Protein backbone atom coordinates (compact mmCIF):
# COMPACT_ATOMS: atom_id res chain seq x y z
CA UNK A 1 0.00 0.00 0.00
CA UNK A 2 1.26 3.49 -0.86
CA UNK A 3 0.85 5.49 2.34
CA UNK A 4 2.31 8.84 1.24
CA UNK A 5 -0.35 9.80 -1.39
CA UNK A 6 -3.11 9.37 1.19
CA UNK A 7 -1.12 11.29 3.77
CA UNK A 8 -0.49 14.07 1.24
CA UNK A 9 -4.19 14.31 0.37
CA UNK A 10 -5.15 14.60 4.04
CA UNK A 11 -2.47 17.23 4.61
CA UNK A 12 -3.68 19.29 1.65
CA UNK A 13 -7.28 19.18 2.86
CA UNK A 14 -6.53 20.23 6.43
CA UNK A 15 -4.11 22.96 5.33
CA UNK A 16 -6.92 24.73 3.44
CA UNK A 17 -7.94 26.71 6.56
CA UNK A 18 -6.12 27.59 9.81
CA UNK A 19 -8.93 26.13 11.95
CA UNK A 20 -8.66 22.83 10.08
CA UNK A 21 -4.88 22.87 10.45
CA UNK A 22 -5.18 23.29 14.24
CA UNK A 23 -7.64 20.40 14.32
CA UNK A 24 -5.26 18.36 12.18
CA UNK A 25 -2.37 18.96 14.58
CA UNK A 26 -4.55 17.98 17.53
CA UNK A 27 -5.60 14.76 15.81
CA UNK A 28 -2.01 13.92 14.86
CA UNK A 29 -0.93 14.33 18.49
CA UNK A 30 -3.82 12.15 19.68
CA UNK A 31 -3.83 9.28 17.22
CA UNK A 32 -0.09 8.82 16.65
CA UNK A 33 1.52 7.25 19.69
CA UNK A 34 4.92 8.48 18.57
CA UNK A 35 3.75 12.02 19.33
CA UNK A 36 2.96 11.04 22.91
CA UNK A 37 6.53 9.84 23.40
CA UNK A 38 8.20 12.69 21.55
CA UNK A 39 6.24 15.36 23.41
CA UNK A 40 7.08 13.69 26.71
CA UNK A 41 10.78 13.67 25.84
CA UNK A 42 10.55 17.35 24.86
CA UNK A 43 8.84 18.22 28.14
CA UNK A 44 11.51 16.37 30.13
CA UNK A 45 14.28 18.26 28.34
CA UNK A 46 12.46 21.60 28.53
CA UNK A 47 12.13 21.23 32.31
CA UNK A 48 15.91 21.72 32.51
CA UNK A 49 15.97 24.85 30.34
CA UNK A 50 16.54 28.21 32.07
CA UNK A 51 13.32 30.21 31.97
CA UNK A 52 14.98 33.32 30.49
CA UNK A 53 17.34 31.72 27.96
CA UNK A 54 16.79 31.41 24.22
CA UNK A 55 16.55 27.79 23.12
CA UNK A 56 17.40 26.82 19.54
CA UNK A 57 15.61 23.78 18.12
CA UNK A 58 16.03 21.94 14.82
CA UNK A 59 12.97 20.04 13.62
CA UNK A 60 14.77 17.71 11.23
CA UNK A 61 12.15 16.45 8.81
CA UNK A 62 9.26 18.62 9.96
CA UNK A 63 6.62 17.08 7.70
CA UNK A 64 3.32 18.77 8.47
CA UNK A 65 5.04 21.06 11.00
CA UNK A 66 3.13 19.93 14.07
CA UNK A 67 6.22 19.50 16.28
CA UNK A 68 7.72 22.85 15.30
CA UNK A 69 4.43 24.54 16.17
CA UNK A 70 4.08 22.57 19.41
CA UNK A 71 7.57 23.55 20.57
CA UNK A 72 7.23 27.23 19.69
CA UNK A 73 3.75 27.54 21.18
CA UNK A 74 4.74 25.94 24.50
CA UNK A 75 8.12 27.66 24.83
CA UNK A 76 8.20 31.42 24.14
CA UNK A 77 12.00 31.38 24.27
CA UNK A 78 12.28 28.66 21.62
CA UNK A 79 13.46 29.51 18.12
CA UNK A 80 12.76 26.67 15.71
CA UNK A 81 14.32 25.89 12.35
CA UNK A 82 11.97 23.42 10.65
CA UNK A 83 13.46 21.67 7.62
CA UNK A 84 12.18 19.13 5.14
CA UNK A 85 12.93 17.92 1.65
CA UNK A 86 9.36 18.44 0.42
CA UNK A 87 8.57 22.06 -0.60
CA UNK A 88 4.79 21.56 -0.55
CA UNK A 89 4.89 20.41 3.08
CA UNK A 90 7.02 23.41 3.99
CA UNK A 91 4.73 25.86 2.21
CA UNK A 92 1.59 24.50 3.86
CA UNK A 93 3.17 24.66 7.32
CA UNK A 94 4.60 28.13 6.69
CA UNK A 95 1.25 29.46 5.50
CA UNK A 96 -0.40 28.26 8.70
CA UNK A 97 2.31 29.46 11.10
CA UNK A 98 2.35 32.91 9.45
CA UNK A 99 -1.19 33.39 10.79
CA UNK A 100 -0.26 32.52 14.38
CA UNK A 101 1.62 34.16 17.23
CA UNK A 102 4.56 31.83 16.51
CA UNK A 103 5.31 33.30 13.09
CA UNK A 104 8.46 35.13 14.24
CA UNK A 105 9.86 32.09 16.05
CA UNK A 106 9.72 29.39 13.37
CA UNK A 107 11.71 29.40 10.13
CA UNK A 108 10.98 26.85 7.40
CA UNK A 109 13.73 25.80 5.01
CA UNK A 110 14.22 23.11 2.40
CA UNK A 111 17.22 21.03 3.44
CA UNK A 112 18.67 17.62 2.65
CA UNK A 113 19.67 16.10 5.99
CA UNK A 114 22.48 14.13 4.39
CA UNK A 115 24.12 17.40 3.31
CA UNK A 116 22.51 20.29 5.21
CA UNK A 117 23.51 23.88 4.55
CA UNK A 118 22.96 25.06 8.13
CA UNK A 119 25.28 27.29 10.13
CA UNK A 120 23.25 27.56 13.35
CA UNK A 121 23.83 25.37 16.39
CA UNK A 122 20.98 23.86 18.39
CA UNK A 123 20.08 22.90 21.93
CA UNK A 124 17.65 20.24 20.71
CA UNK A 125 17.31 18.31 17.45
CA UNK A 126 14.07 16.42 16.86
CA UNK A 127 13.82 13.76 14.17
CA UNK A 128 10.46 11.97 14.10
CA UNK A 129 9.98 9.03 11.72
CA UNK A 130 12.58 10.32 9.30
CA UNK A 131 15.64 8.10 9.55
CA UNK A 132 13.88 5.02 8.19
CA UNK A 133 13.59 6.94 4.89
CA UNK A 134 17.30 7.84 4.61
CA UNK A 135 19.85 5.33 3.36
CA UNK A 136 22.95 7.17 4.57
CA UNK A 137 21.85 7.52 8.17
CA UNK A 138 25.42 7.67 9.49
CA UNK A 139 26.00 10.91 7.56
CA UNK A 140 22.87 12.42 9.09
CA UNK A 141 23.95 11.48 12.61
CA UNK A 142 27.36 13.05 12.01
CA UNK A 143 25.65 16.27 10.93
CA UNK A 144 23.43 16.15 14.01
CA UNK A 145 26.53 15.96 16.20
CA UNK A 146 28.07 18.90 14.36
CA UNK A 147 24.92 21.01 14.65
CA UNK A 148 24.28 20.22 18.31
CA UNK A 149 25.57 22.48 21.06
CA UNK A 150 27.51 21.00 23.96
CA UNK A 151 24.98 19.83 26.50
CA UNK A 152 22.29 19.52 23.84
CA UNK A 153 20.05 16.56 23.04
CA UNK A 154 18.86 14.69 19.97
CA UNK A 155 15.49 12.91 19.96
CA UNK A 156 15.21 10.12 17.40
CA UNK A 157 11.85 8.40 16.91
CA UNK A 158 11.68 5.60 14.35
CA UNK A 159 10.10 2.22 13.66
CA UNK A 160 11.92 -0.69 15.25
CA UNK A 161 13.02 -3.86 13.48
CA UNK A 162 10.28 -5.77 15.30
CA UNK A 163 7.57 -5.07 12.77
CA UNK A 164 7.85 -1.29 12.55
CA UNK A 165 7.07 -1.19 8.84
CA UNK A 166 4.20 -3.62 9.40
CA UNK A 167 5.40 -6.38 7.07
CA UNK A 168 3.20 -9.26 8.12
CA UNK A 169 5.03 -12.10 6.38
CA UNK A 170 8.27 -12.63 4.53
CA UNK A 171 8.00 -11.17 1.05
CA UNK A 172 4.68 -9.51 1.77
CA UNK A 173 4.27 -5.80 1.12
CA UNK A 174 3.98 -3.84 4.32
CA UNK A 175 1.36 -1.29 5.21
CA UNK A 176 4.05 1.35 4.71
CA UNK A 177 6.35 0.51 1.83
CA UNK A 178 8.32 3.76 1.43
CA UNK A 179 11.00 2.86 3.99
CA UNK A 180 14.59 2.10 2.97
CA UNK A 181 14.93 -0.16 6.03
CA UNK A 182 12.25 -2.12 7.91
CA UNK A 183 13.26 -0.50 11.19
CA UNK A 184 16.10 -0.15 13.66
CA UNK A 185 17.42 -2.55 16.21
CA UNK A 186 17.83 -0.64 19.48
CA UNK A 187 21.49 -1.60 19.86
CA UNK A 188 22.18 -0.73 16.22
CA UNK A 189 20.68 2.74 16.52
CA UNK A 190 22.51 3.48 19.77
CA UNK A 191 25.77 2.27 18.25
CA UNK A 192 25.40 4.50 15.20
CA UNK A 193 24.71 7.50 17.42
CA UNK A 194 27.78 6.70 19.51
CA UNK A 195 29.91 6.40 16.38
CA UNK A 196 28.77 9.92 15.46
CA UNK A 197 29.86 11.25 18.85
CA UNK A 198 26.45 11.26 20.56
CA UNK A 199 25.76 9.48 23.84
CA UNK A 200 22.39 7.72 24.21
CA UNK A 201 20.87 8.57 27.59
CA UNK A 202 17.46 6.94 27.09
CA UNK A 203 16.26 4.23 24.74
CA UNK A 204 12.94 2.45 24.89
CA UNK A 205 10.55 0.47 22.75
CA UNK A 206 7.19 2.01 21.91
CA UNK A 207 4.08 0.56 20.30
CA UNK A 208 4.01 -2.42 22.62
CA UNK A 209 0.89 -4.49 23.24
CA UNK A 210 -1.39 -1.51 23.81
CA UNK A 211 0.18 0.81 21.26
CA UNK A 212 0.05 -1.80 18.50
CA UNK A 213 -3.68 -2.20 19.07
CA UNK A 214 -4.10 1.58 18.94
CA UNK A 215 -2.10 1.70 15.69
CA UNK A 216 -4.39 -0.80 14.00
CA UNK A 217 -7.53 0.88 15.32
CA UNK A 218 -6.61 4.52 14.67
CA UNK A 219 -4.25 4.38 11.67
CA UNK A 220 -3.98 1.09 9.81
CA UNK A 221 -7.64 0.21 9.31
CA UNK A 222 -8.77 3.78 8.43
CA UNK A 223 -5.88 4.27 5.98
CA UNK A 224 -6.60 0.97 4.26
CA UNK A 225 -10.20 2.05 3.90
CA UNK A 226 -9.13 5.40 2.43
CA UNK A 227 -6.95 3.58 -0.10
CA UNK A 228 -9.96 1.60 -1.34
CA UNK A 229 -12.73 4.17 -1.62
CA UNK A 230 -13.24 7.91 -1.42
CA UNK A 231 -16.45 7.24 0.49
CA UNK A 232 -14.19 6.66 3.49
CA UNK A 233 -13.82 10.43 3.87
CA UNK A 234 -17.52 10.53 4.79
CA UNK A 235 -17.47 7.37 6.90
CA UNK A 236 -14.37 7.97 9.00
CA UNK A 237 -15.66 10.93 11.09
CA UNK A 238 -18.35 8.58 12.42
CA UNK A 239 -15.83 5.78 12.87
CA UNK A 240 -13.53 7.99 14.93
CA UNK A 241 -16.34 9.01 17.27
CA UNK A 242 -16.11 5.46 18.62
CA UNK A 243 -12.50 4.57 17.86
CA UNK A 244 -10.74 7.72 19.08
CA UNK A 245 -11.65 7.41 22.80
CA UNK A 246 -10.65 3.75 22.82
CA UNK A 247 -7.41 4.40 20.91
CA UNK A 248 -6.50 7.33 23.15
CA UNK A 249 -6.77 5.10 26.23
CA UNK A 250 -4.61 2.46 24.53
CA UNK A 251 -1.96 5.10 23.68
CA UNK A 252 -2.04 6.35 27.27
CA UNK A 253 -1.53 2.81 28.56
CA UNK A 254 1.40 2.19 26.22
CA UNK A 255 3.23 5.31 27.40
CA UNK A 256 2.87 4.12 30.98
CA UNK A 257 4.07 0.60 30.24
CA UNK A 258 7.71 -0.47 30.22
CA UNK A 259 7.57 -2.29 26.91
CA UNK A 260 10.00 -5.21 26.66
CA UNK A 261 9.51 -5.00 22.90
CA UNK A 262 7.56 -2.94 20.42
CA UNK A 263 7.33 -1.88 16.80
CA UNK A 264 8.51 1.64 17.61
CA UNK A 265 11.71 3.00 19.13
CA UNK A 266 12.65 6.32 20.73
CA UNK A 267 16.20 7.26 21.66
CA UNK A 268 17.40 10.45 23.36
CA UNK A 269 21.10 11.14 22.98
CA UNK A 270 23.25 13.91 24.41
CA UNK A 271 26.47 15.69 23.54
Protein described:
With 271 residues, the chain is α/β, with parallel strands linked by helices. Helices cover 46% and strands 19% of the residues. It is built from nine helices and seven strands; from the N terminus they run αααβαβαββαβαβααβ. A seven-stranded mixed beta sheet has the order 3-2-1-4-5-7-6, with helices on both faces. Helix 5 links the parallel strand 2 (78-84) and strand 3. Helix 2 crosses helix 3 (33-46) and helix 8 runs antiparallel to helix 9. It is globular, with a radius of gyration of 18 Å. The termini are far apart. Residues 167-173 have low confidence and may be disordered.
Residues in helix, %: 40-55%
Give helix and strand order, one letter per element, not per position. HHHEHEHEEHEHEHHE
Q: How much strand content do the residues show?
A: 15-25%
Radius of gyration equals 18 Å
> What class would the helix/strand composition place it in?
alpha/beta
Major sheet: size, sense and barrel closure? 7 strands, mixed
